[in-house]
Amino acid sequence: MIEGITDEPSTNLVNEHINTVHDFEPDWIIGIGGGSPMDAAKALWLFHEHPDLSFEAATKPFELPELRSKSKFIGIPTTSGTASEISNLTVITNSETGVKYPLASFELTPDLAIIDPVMVESMPKRVTAYSGMDAVTHSIEAYVAKPRTTFTDALAIEAAEILKNHLLSSYQGNQESREQVHYAQAMAGMSFANAVLGNVHSLAHKSGPTFEVPHGCANAIYLPYVIQFNRSVVEDRFAALARRIGLEGQTDKELVDSLIEWIRELNREMDVPNTLHEFGVSEEFFKEHVDTMAENAVQDPCSGTNPRETSVDEMKQLLVAAYYGQEVTI
Fold this sequence. Notes:
Rossmann fold; Dehydroquinate synthase-like, alpha domain
């Protein structure tokens, strides 16, 4: 058993534990925990199956070699948001460069997921908030992503409605709502595992290692700004989602404005920051890293499925808006 994984997985972590997996030669690898332990288990599974695979080769989207010649995988989540137990992704940080990469392949989809709400009954409030906003982001980004389908739409919009009705109540300790959120996050995971995601996740993947923003918190911060950026090409879809989850507005513009405000108000009610400055990133440190972060975010695989093409300069403007709390008008 490999325990004590509390940080987001890195290549150093894989190197530290991979011999334990090799020596044990498991028939099944069981990832149990939140997103970090689950992603670490997936990464160890991958490099146990293919010890000669380079990290650079693993980062090429949907080009991983076949798995399951040695082990199969079970995912058991103890948080309600990442959906790693459902998805075809694992996220790992290159310890040499500090850059976080999503490794994407349907080979990484677990063979079995055990989604038991008993596992999240004692989840701390901050974890409930951050993981819940991760699920909210999954549902919204999957609903507008380029590879979306009728099937992914159904899962995404139903998950969004459940989250609208139950996330705040779950945060406040209602166990019935916590159960519903746990199911909704898995539905959102099934959606984005097929429709993929967008710029919110591209930015969040780069914010964790650099600004030390927890993944779900980063998604919560960036989501309203990316909606503002993407609305010029998918405003009708954002409006349809807003209408389905019961937000007010007569026109598409009014509905999308309501969606953005709902996200920000939900953040406030769960004590989640709405800007990078509010999170605690210093202006000096932000200015020092913003250009590199924008470049890295554009190269993230999730940027390729964002509904609107995004340049490095536009990605930088999104970061600046999210730092200062500015309206996105590009």
